[in-house]
C-alpha cells in the first residue's frame, strides 16, 4: 500500500513537470512565430508596428517604415485566409479563442484533445495575431498546452480522470508561462471550468507544478533583465490611500459590469451572424479580418489620425502600458474609444473563426475603461469642492483594478484573475480594491459568461457524473427488508429428484435451499435447474438434491447493508439470496428477494423526493 501511494505521488510530480516543459517550449515557439509573422508580413508591407508591453521581448529591431493603410487591409485579409485554411482544413476544433475548446474537452470529451490541435492552433494563432487580428494569447496557449497534456495522457493510456488533470495542467502551464504568472496559471485552470463559485480542486497541485516549470522554461527565453519581470514592467507604486476610495471603485464596478455584458452580447451576436453567412467557413476569418481593418481605419481617420487608436488591432497592450504608466498622456475620449471599439474588433476577429484569445483584449478593455473612469473621478474632484478628495485618486490604479474586475466578471474567474493581474503588473498594493471590484463584477455579471462551454458547478459537469449520487440505500439493513414470516420449503440433500419434481408442482417457490441431516444449509437450486431433468424420467430415482444444487452460493446476514445485497444480486443475476444466522453458521433464517430490496429503494427515494419538495416550498 505504501509503495502504491509513493508511486501515485511520484506520478503527479513527474508528469506535470513533463507537461510544463512541453508547454513552456510551446509558448516560446508560439511567441517566436507570432513575432516573425508580424515583422515579415505586417510590418514589412504595411509599416504598422503593434506596440507591445514593456516586459515583452522584441525579437526584431524595426526601422521607421512608411505606413500604408491599404497594405494593412491586404495583410489582415491574407492572414484571415491563411488562418481559416489551416483551421478548417486540418483541425476545425481549433477555431475561435481556444479556452472554450479546452473547457469542452475537460467536461464532455474525457480529456481528449488531438495533438494536431496544438500544431494547427500554434500556426493559425501566430498568423491571426501576427497580422494584427484583435485577440490575445491566453486562449491559443491554453488550448496548445491542454492538447499537449492530453496527448501525454493518451500516450500513457491513463484513465479519463488522469487525462483531464494533465490537460488542465497543460492549460494552466501555457497561461502561466506566456503571462509570467505561474501562481495564477495554476488557479486559472481549476477556476475557469465553472461559471459559479466552484473550483476543480484535483488539478491545483499538478497544475501548480506544471505552471512553475513552464514559467521557468519560458523565462530562459527572455533577456536577463526580463527573466522574472512582469509583463507590464515596473509600474508606479500605486496604493489606496483612503477607504473612501472604495466608493468610486464600487461605481466603476457597475460600469465594468455593463461593458462586460455588452462585450459578451456583441461577441456571441457577431458569432451568430457569421454562422448564418453562406459559403465555406474557410473564408469567414478573412471576412472578419477585413471588417476589423475597416473599423480600425474608420476610427483612425475619424479621430484625426491618432496612432493610439490603432490599438484596437493586435493585442493592444501598448496603449494599456501607456495608460497604466502615464495616464495623463491619454484623454478620456481616446481611452473609451479604444476600450469600446476593441469589443467590436475582437468580436469580428474571433467570432468569425479567427484564432486568438479573449483574455488579452479583456485586459485592454477593462484597463482602458478603468483608467478613463479614474481620470473622470480625478477631474470631478478638481472641479467639485464637495468631493475634492477624489482629486487624489490615481487613474493608473483604476486601470490595474479595472483589468482584474472586468475579466473576473465576464470569465467567472475572480481569484485567478486577481492573482494574474497582480503578477502581470507587479502591483500588490491594490489587492483590497481589486478583490472588492472583482467580487462586485462577479456578482453583477451573474448568469452570463464569455466562455459558453463552462458549466455552473461540479455537480452539473459530465466529468463528475456519479460523484454526487446520493446513496439512497445508505443505512438500510437486510433485516429491515426481508420477510421473517415467509414459509420456505427446505430440501434435504438426499431428496430424490422425483420428489423434487412433485414439490415444484405444488409450490410457487422458485429457489430451494438444501440442508444436510443437521439442518445446516449446504447448497441451493432453482426451479430452472430442475426443469432440464423433467422430461428424462430415467434419472428421477437416480439423482437427488445434492446432484442439482450448487454448493457455492452467495448469502447475506441480517446486519448486512442493502448496498452489499444489491451487489450480490447483480453479480450472478439472481433474484433471491439466503439470509444466514451470523451466530449459528449454516443456519438459514430467511430469503431476501431482489424485488423486496428494489421496493425498499423506491420507498426511500420517494421519501427523499417528498422531503426535498417540502424543503423547497
From TrEMBL:
Claim: Metal-binding is one of the keywords in the record: no
Membrane-spanning segments: 12-33, 69-88, 165-183, 203-222, 243-263, 283-301, 308-324, 357-377, 389-410, 430-451
Alphabetical list of InterPro entries matching this protein: CBS_dom, CBS_dom_sf, Cl-channel_core, ClC, ClC-type_chloride_channel
Residues in CBS domain copies: 484-542, 549-607
Keyword terms, alphabetized: CBS domain, Chloride, Chloride channel, Ion channel, Ion transport, Membrane, Transmembrane, Transmembrane helix, Transport
Pfam families found in the cross-reference section: CBS (PF00571), Voltage_CLC (PF00654)
Localization of this protein: Membrane
GO molecular function: chloride channel activity
Chief localisation class: membrane
An annotated GO cellular component: chloride channel complex
Topology with respect to the bilayer: Multi-pass membrane protein
Keyword Ion transport applies: yes
Protein name: H(+)/Cl(-) exchange transporter ClcA
Record organism: Fuerstiella marisgermanici
Gene expressing this chain: clcA
Amino acid at each position: 500500500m505504501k509503495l502504491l501511494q509513493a508511486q501515485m505521488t511520484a506520478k503527479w510530480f513527474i508528469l506535470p513537470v513533463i507537461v510544463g516543459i512541453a508547454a513552456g517550449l510551446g509558448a516560446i515557439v508560439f511567441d517566436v512565430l507570432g513575432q516573425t509573422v508580424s515583422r515579415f508580413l505586417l510590418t514589412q508591407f504595411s509599416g504598422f508596428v503593434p506596440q507591445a508591453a514593456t516586459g515583452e521581448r522584441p525579437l526584431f529591431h524595426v526601422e521607421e517604415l512608411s505606413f500604408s493603410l491599404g497594405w494593412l487591409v491586404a495583410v489582415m485579409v491574407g492572414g484571415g485566409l491563411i488562418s481559416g485554411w489551416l483551421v478548417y482544413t486540418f483541425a476545425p476544433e481549433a477555431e475561435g479563442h481556444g479556452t472554450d475548446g479546452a473547457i469542452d474537452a475537460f467536461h464532455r470529451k474525457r480529456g481528449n484533445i488531438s495533438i494536431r490541435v496544438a500544431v494547427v492552433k500554434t500556426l493559425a494563432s501566430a498568423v491571426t495575431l501576427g497580422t494584427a487580428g484583435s485577440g490575445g494569447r491566453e486562449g491559443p496557449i491554453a488550448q496548445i498546452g491542454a492538447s499537449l497534456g492530453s496527448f501525454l495522457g493518451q500516450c500513457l493510456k491513463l484513465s479519463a480522470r488522469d487525462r483531464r488533470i494533465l490537460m488542465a495542467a497543460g492549460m494552466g502551464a501555457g497561461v502561466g508561462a506566456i503571462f509570467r504568472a505561474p501562481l495564477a496559471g495554476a488557479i486559472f485552470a481549476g477556476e475557469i471550468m465553472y461559471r459559479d463559485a466552484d473550483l476543480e480542486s484535483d488539478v491545483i497541485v499538478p497544475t501548480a507544478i506544471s505552471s512553475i516549470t513552464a514559467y521557468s522554461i519560458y523565462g530562459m527565453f527572455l533577456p536577463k533583465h526580463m527573466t522574472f519581470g512582469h509583463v507590464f514592467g515596473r509600474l508606479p507604486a500605486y496604493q489606496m490611500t483612503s477607504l473612501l476610495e472604495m466608493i468610486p471603485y464600487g461605481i466603476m464596478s457597475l460600469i465594468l459590469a455593463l461593458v462586460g455584458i455588452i462585450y459578451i452580447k456583441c461577441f456571441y451576436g457577431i458569432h451568430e451572424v457569421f454562422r448564418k453567412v453562406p459559403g465555406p467557413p474557410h473564408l469567414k476569418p478573412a471576412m472578419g479580418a477585413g471588417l476589423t481593418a475597416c473599423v480600425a481605419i474608420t476610427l483612425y481617420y475619424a479621430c484625426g489620425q491618432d496612432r493610439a487608436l490603432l490599438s484596437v488591432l493586435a493585442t493592444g497592450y501598448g496603449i494599456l502600458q501607456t495608460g497604466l504608466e502615464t495616464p495623463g498622456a491619454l484623454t478620456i475620449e481616446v481611452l473609451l474609444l479604444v476600450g469600446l471599439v476593441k469589443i467590436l474588433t475582437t468580436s469580428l476577429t474571433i467570432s468569425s473563426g479567427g484564432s486568438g484569445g479573449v483574455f488579452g483584449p479583456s485586459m485592454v478593455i477593462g484597463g482602458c475603461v478603468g483608467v478613463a473612469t479614474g481620470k473622470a473621478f480625478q477631474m470631478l474632484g478638481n472641479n467639485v469642492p464637495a468631493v475634492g478628495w477624489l482629486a487624489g485618486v490615481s487613474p493608473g490604479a483604476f486601470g490595474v483594478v479595472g483589468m482584474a474586475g472586468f475579466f473576473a466578471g465576464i470569465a467567472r474567474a475572480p481569484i485567478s484573475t486577481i492573482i494574474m493581474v497582480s503578477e502581470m503588473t507587479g502591483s500588490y498594493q491594490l489587492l483590497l480594491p481589486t478583490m472588492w471590484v472583482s467580487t462586485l463584477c462577479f456578482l453583477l455579471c451573474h448568469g452570463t459568461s464569455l466562455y459558453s462551454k463552462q458549466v455552473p458547478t461540479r455537480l452539473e459537469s459530465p466529468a463528475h457524473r456519479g460523484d454526487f449520487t446520493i446513496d439512497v440505500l445508505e443505512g438500510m439493513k437486510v433485516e429491515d427488508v426481508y420477510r421473517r414470516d415467509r414459509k420456505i420449503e427446505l430440501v434435504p440433500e438426499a431428496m430424490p429428484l422425483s420428489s423434487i419434481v412433485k414439490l415444484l408442482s405444488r409450490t410457487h417457490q422458485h429457489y430451494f435451499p438444501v440442508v444436510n441431516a443437521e439442518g445446516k444449509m449446504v447448497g441451493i437450486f432453482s426451479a430452472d435447474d430442475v426443469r432440464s431433468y423433467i422430461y428424462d424420467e430415467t434419472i428421477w430415482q437416480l439423482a437427488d438434491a445434492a446432484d442439482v444444487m450448487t454448493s457455492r452460493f452467495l448469502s447475506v446476514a441480517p446486519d448486512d447493508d442493502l448496498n452489499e445485497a444489491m451487489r450480490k444480486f447483480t453479480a450472478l443475476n439472481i433474484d433471491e439470496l439466503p439470509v444466514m444466522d451470523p451466530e449459528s453458521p449454516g443456519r438459514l433464517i430467511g430469503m431476501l428477494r431482489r424485488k423486496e430490496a428494489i421496493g425498499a429503494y423506491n420507498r426511500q427515494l420517494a421519501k427523499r423526493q417528498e422531503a426535498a419538495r417540502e424543503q423547497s416550498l
